[in-house]
Amino acid sequence: MNDLEIDMNLERDRPWHRLIARRPHFAWTAMEGLCFEGVPLASIAATQGTPTWVYGATTLRQRLNLLQTMFADAEIQPAIRYAVKANDHLAILSLLRIGGAGADVTSAGEYARAAAAGIEAAAMVYSGVGKRSDEIATAIEAGIGQFNVESGEELAMISALASARNRTVPIALRVNPDIAAGGHDKISTGRAGDKFGIAFDQAAGLYRYAENLPGIRPVGFSTHIGSQIFSIAPFEAAYGRIVALIDALNAEGTPVTGLDLGGGFGIPYDDGIGFPLPAYAAMVRRVIGDRTLDLTIEPGRWLVAPAGLLLARVTLTKASDAAHFSVLDAGMNDLLRPALYGATHGIVPVDAVAATAPALPSEVVGPVCESSDRFGTYDLPRLAPGALVAILDAGAYGANMSNTFNGRPLAAQVLIDQERSHLIRMRQSVSDLWRGEIVPIR
Ligand code: LLP
């Protein structure tokens, strides 16, 4: 702690203090309030306005590094194919590319973004339950590293499109292992009734069939059982089933060389502890045993969520007998997760004096005309209109799930690198809102 950092020891019970205590790149200073990677958030609000997404390059680099180290410690080296859907900003993709990650893309748009960020097509896997033929063709022509195939029809499409181009593309079959991962219902993907993947009992047959199709080279299986998962057990169950499948195929002389383990590693949005990655890596090592398999992982949230926040301002407050409301200038059009999944994100005051005030329950809501535009009930200091708050862990599934509902332009985005902040996406202007609209009426 340096001289200017506020001694929060006296306020250890404050929920916002507990949140920040677990996030090493944050600290309040007496003069400048809450800083992220050494930059006062108030200075970003002063220059860029609010709401603004703020990302930390150091946090992101460190997380990628930590991920690589934890797998290396377990003596496995999966190829990291970052799930672009979590945050597709070119600067984020570039940082991850430099750190050694490839990409997991799920549309022509994500492929093009990853390519624009300099990620080689060969370092990409292409996932998605509804790939269009034009998207498949583009990816084949670019030399995509692997398609994760989700149906027999898709397999036939890829085979036809690749052989028409005299190409042979690596494919993995995405298996639905019929495992309930225990995460939120809306982000579970590996149960038999979910739309994702190939039913487990069809996977071996389809793999054998794929062996004889032109234009494709089956290299293995992939799976992705859901997102924001904390327990190792569902992963272990899913991988165990797939490894048994691999053994059976290898035993009959059908070679299987790769396993894409998917993503889904949870992060604590509160002051709890995170996903047990070392135990996960050790479990993967154990399940793989002495088999030689090329491993891949597709993490999204775990890498980027803690590297981002949404900076917002209290527009006004109001109280009734029922509740005290803090109405922010950020809403569900910016951060959709609370409305869509009932998700909560830590919310902390930016002002240093506020940070020492007593905690009182507050309904934190946005300005959008929907009752679900509500971040949740938080114990916060009584914030005056104009006060800034940081909504934490908003680096994943934040900015790129935003929309302009209620005529609210997309927020600005800022990246902090080496204690300097860079505008990486201009705030949308109001006239941008109708760009592209055509009025065929005189
Ligand atoms: N691989 C595939 C095939 C996926 O569908 C996903 C996420 C990932 C990897 C990355 O999962 P992660 O490591 O980020 O959990 N919008 C939701 C999350 C949806 C996840 C969709 N698929 C949310 O905000 O919680």
Report on this model:
By secondary structure, the chain is an alpha/beta fold. It folds into two domains: 9-57 and 306-434, Lyase, Ornithine Decarboxylase, Chain A, domain 1, CATH 2.40.37; 58-304, Alanine racemase (TIM Barrel), CATH 3.20.20. The chain has twelve helices and 21 strands. The strands form three sheets. Strands 4, 14, 15, 16, 17, 18, 19, 20 and 21 form a nine-stranded mixed sheet that branches. An eight-stranded parallel β-barrel has the order 5-6-7-8-9-11-12-13, surrounded by four helices. β2 (33-36) and β3 (39-40) form a beta hairpin. α3 (57-73) packs parallel to α10 (277-288). The radius of gyration is 23 Å and the shape is globular. The termini are far apart. The structure holds ligand LLP.
Secondary-structure blueprint of this entry?
Elements (H helix, E strand, L loop, with lengths): L14 H7 L4 E4 L3 E4 L2 E2 H8 L3 E5 H17 L5 E5 L6 H9 L3 E4 L2 H9 L7 E3 L6 H10 L3 E4 L2 H13 L4 E8 L21 E2 H12 L4 E7 L10 H19 L6 E3 L16 H12 L5 E4 L3 H4 L3 E12 L4 E5 L8 H5 L5 E3 L10 E6 L8 E7 L7 E4 L20 E6 L2 E6 L17
Parallel strand pairs: 4-20, 5-6, 5-13, 6-7, 7-8, 8-9, 9-10, 9-11, 11-12, 12-13, 15-17
Antiparallel strand pairs: 1-2, 2-3, 4-14, 14-15, 14-19, 16-19, 17-18, 20-21
Bound molecules: ligand LLP.
Count of discrete structural domains: 2
The name of the CATH superfamily of the largest domain reads: Alanine racemase
Largest sheet: 9 strands, mixed
Q: Which CATH architecture of the largest domain?
A: Alpha-Beta Barrel
